[in-house]
Design brief:
By secondary structure, this protein is of the alpha+beta class. The chain has one domain (24-178). 24% of the residues lie in helices and 43% in strands. It has a 6-stranded antiparallel β-sheet. It has a 3-stranded antiparallel β-sheet with strand order 1-2-7. A hairpin with a 2-residue loop joins strand 5 and strand 6 (111-115).
């Protein structure tokens, strides 16, 4: 009996480092983000480091569409109350693969484009160029604003069996942290 207990104790001690180490999800790195004045609008320009892992690639090859969400927030801090939300933007990208044409289709709203390779998809998803977020007149010149942006895979848009799988597997957790910076118009 004591051999069984000591054997179980040894196995538990060997597994302890593996169980106690934090499990990290695949992440999308944020390389840069800024707001730039373009005519009468402030536009968002950002660069992410998107890398689609083999599990997501296999899901695409099997007909599962992936939805990515770009989120942007602009707020003005106030000392006397909660921060004021000045602007908010959410853009959803749908990524699908067509085995008949062997092409990927990346679409947002009614606009879409055909892409030849997964590397090309990752390059297009990684770049946000001149997306209007707020009119110039809506901001107070000289005031400080807090901006934040992130890109993530929206697992809530996956079919139900994949949503359950996404809870148990880190391969489905593809997202960036909120990238925050101060902005003065």
């Amino acid at each position: 009996m004591s051999r069984i207990v000591s054997g179980c104790l040894c196995v538990a001690l060997l597994l302890l480092p593996a169980l106690s180490s934090p499990v990290r999800a695949d992440t999308i790195g944020v390389q840069s983000a800024e707001l730039v004045l373009d005519d009468d609008d402030y536009v968002l320009t950002a660069q992410f480091d998107v890398s689609i892992n083999p599990t997501l690639e296999e899901a695409l090859q099997n007909g599962v569409s992936l939805y990515f969400v770009l989120e942007f927030e602009l707020g003005r801090p106030r000392w006397y109350w909660l921060d004021e939300k000045v602007a908010q933007l959410t853009v959803q990208y749908r990524l699908a693969y067509s085995p008949l044409t062997r092409q990927y289709r990346l679409s947002t709203g009614l606009l879409g484009q055909q892409l030849e390779s997964l590397e090309e998809v990752q390059r297009v998803l990684s770049r946000v160029a001149a997306r209007p977020v707020i009119k110039k007149d809506a901001l107070v010149p000289g005031a400080r604003y807090d901006a934040a942006v992130r890109l993530r895979l929206d697992v809530a848009q996956l079919p139900k069996p994949f949503q359950i799988n996404a809870l148990a597997s880190r391969d489905w957790s593809l997202q960036s942290e909120w990238h925050r910076w101060s902005f003065v118009p």
